[in-house]
Amino acid sequence: MFRALLLAPPGAGKGTQGQRLADRHGVPHLATGDLLRDHVARGTDLGKQAKSHMDAGRLVPDDLVIDMVLRKIGGDGTGEILEGFLLDGFPRTLTQARFAYEWGLQFKRTFHAVIMLEVPEDELVRRLVQRGEEQGRSDDTEEVIRERLAVYEDNTAPLVDFYESRGILVRVDGTGTVDEVTERIEAGLEPMVPA
Ligand code: AP5
Ligand code: MG
Questions:
Q1: Residue 171 CB neighbour total at 10 angstroms
Q2: What is the layout of strands, in order, in the sheet containing 29-31?
Q3: How far, in Å, CA of 123 to CA of 120, rounded?
Q4: What is the tens place of the pLDDT at every residue in 122-177?
């Protein structure tokens, strides 16, 4: 069963590629940003706590995000534990990465691959500004996009070393068409993922 995660800056294509990879491999696409936006839209307690962080382009506190993910993948003592998944936007801090690693060891579900999409910063900003104009996502303003990129560099980029040292990092050029990127990811995954 396929277990992978997408580790990439805002606008690199985690959501776009994540949905395709999940469909191809027959696993759920679990995107913490989408899950949090759903909580905000429904006005849950978590949504109320998360909203100001998200609107500012900062991270939602680790404990809140970890609880939310545990409820989805299982292991909090209630319900089944998922065998396969494509995580998008989680882990995003070293604390989250250590939690995920311990979870994988505990339930014999360590990750097969971590897909890192590489896209130049000016292209990231261009994509997100365009999406902000077209779809109005509240954090797609130029100022908040810059903050999200800085937060990625400070908190999430260090995870590249964490996963590289475990031998599961797959670096993929995230520029070009969506189809081209998908094919590059699949080629990179081939040696990593059980058939
Ligand atoms: P999240 O929703 O994860 O946002 P993000 O990381 O900023 O990334 P995006 O969703 O904006 O981009 P993406 O990489 O998914 O790219 P996409 O495919 O959409 O997180 C939002 C917030 O939630 C965070 O700031 C934080 O507050 C909170 N949060 C989430 N997870 C958290 C966690 N684990 N811990 C703490 N807080 C957390 O593509 C972008 C655009 O480009 C789209 O318009 C798309 O159509 C276009 N595009 C895609 N591919 C291509 C291509 N090949 N060529 C041209 N355009 C393309
Ligand atoms: Mg996304």
A1: 14
A2: 29-31, 85-88, 3-7, 113-118, 169-173
A3: 6
A4: 999 999 999 999 999 999 999 999 999 999 999 999 999 999 999 999 999 999 99
For ligand 1, what atom is nearest to the CA of residue 134? 44
What is the dotted CATH code of the domain comprising 3-31+83-189?
3.40.50.300
Catalytic site residue from 24, 72, 131, 146 = 131
* Residue of minimum CA distance from atom 8 in ligand 1: 10
Distance 14 CA to ligand 2 centre (A): 5
Domain residue limits, the chain: 3-31+83-189
3-state secondary structure of 132: helix
Active site residue 131: yes
* Tokens matching residue 68: 């939310």
Q: pTM for the complete prediction?
A: 0.96
Task: State what percent of residues in the chain have pLDDT above 70.
Answer: 99
